[in-house]
Amino acid sequence: FVAKPCAIALNIQANGPQIAPPNAILEKVFTAITKHPDEKRLEGLSKQLDWDVRSIQRWFRQRRNQEKPSTLTRFCESMWRFSFYLYVFTYGVRFLKKTPWLWNTRHCWYNYPYQPLTTDLHYYYILELSFYWSLMFSQFTDIKRKDFGIMFLHHLVCIFLITFSYVNNMARVGTLVLCLHDSADALLEAAKMANYAKFQKMCDLLFVMFAVVFITTRLGIFPLWVLNTTLFESWEIVGPYPSWWVFNLLLLLIQGLNCFWSYLIVKIACKAVSRGKVSKDDRSDIESSSDEEDSEPPGKNAHTATTTNGTSGTNGYLLTGSCSMDD
């Protein structure tokens, strides 16, 4: 109701990826047998249709991409996530600035575990937990990307960490973890929206801001501030106990994921320096095709395919530009 009119106002159309030319035989194989035919099946189809194998591979790739959401759908998804991240981060900052443990993390452990659970803290936790549960379920119906396994692990760890810290009344330090990790997410979604709207300079600027905030908060502030209090200050004040070991193990696992994603961000930044533009997200779900394939007719016969908006290659239906971060 909100994002779609905004997208239309920005001239974002519901253009999907390149459409595969109609073919009853290939469609039957795609829908009833397999979406990823092996070499033996490809050779059989090649003889049956009098098409070369490469053309059949391209048809299956286009047919798979055909089921991917349009740019308009992606914009709406990014705008929804941007709205949530912005709201929850703003709420977290407004809540934490009134708490003593934001300014002195040792307060996270004073009088532990007999610390009161306030209404604001409870709301903050339930809001975050419900969002991560929604991500956990939606990833099975959403497009499976290259980092599906890592994202699944991330959502699982986050849900368990939020629940575990709530049950063990470690909510004070938990709010620091949540707010810190929410700080960069809104910038990433804003950069995606700028990319979909073809605001290339704004996309580049937002991506740089996202990269700086992400790496600073997750590789700098998180280990030096949050992990310092969970590993050392808590040991000094309350001492180690069974839940302490589990909690810190989960936080270290989250930090390992932060290092992995920081590596991907730096990788994109290095490509941007070498190519003069921000490359696409390495997790892109639009299957790549070479320029040669896209210019080549689909078969020995004159089966020609049109490109969408004049684009081809790894971004599929996304317009090429200086910033392309296909989520």
Q: Care to describe what's here?
A:
Pathway: Sphingolipid metabolism; Lipid metabolism; sphingolipid metabolism. One of its GO terms (molecular function) is DNA binding. It is found in: Endoplasmic reticulum membrane; Nucleus. Residues 73-274 form the TLC domain. InterPro entries: HD, Homeodomain-like_sf, Lag1/Lac1-like, TLC-dom. This protein has 327 residues and is an all-alpha fold. It has two domains: 18-67, Arc Repressor Mutant, subunit A (Orthogonal Bundle); 71-278, no CATH class. It is 66% helix and 0% strand. It contains 13 helices and no strands. The two termini are 22 Å apart. Mean pLDDT is 82; it is low at 283-324.
List its salient traits.
327 residues; Arc Repressor Mutant, subunit A; 2 domains; 13 helices; transmembrane
SSE arrangement, N to C = HHHHHHHHHHHHH
Class per helix and strand makeup: mainly alpha
Q: Report the portion of residues in β strands.
A: under 5%
Helix content: 55-70%
Based on DSSP secondary structure assignment, what is the total number of beta strands?
0
Alpha-carbon distance between the two ends:
22 Å
Figure out the total of helices: 13
Rounded to an integer in angstroms, the radius of gyration calculated over CA atoms is 24 Å
What's the pLDDT, averaged over the residues?
A: 82
Count of spatially separate domains: 2
Biggest sheet overview: none
Shape: elongated
Low-confidence stretches: 283-324
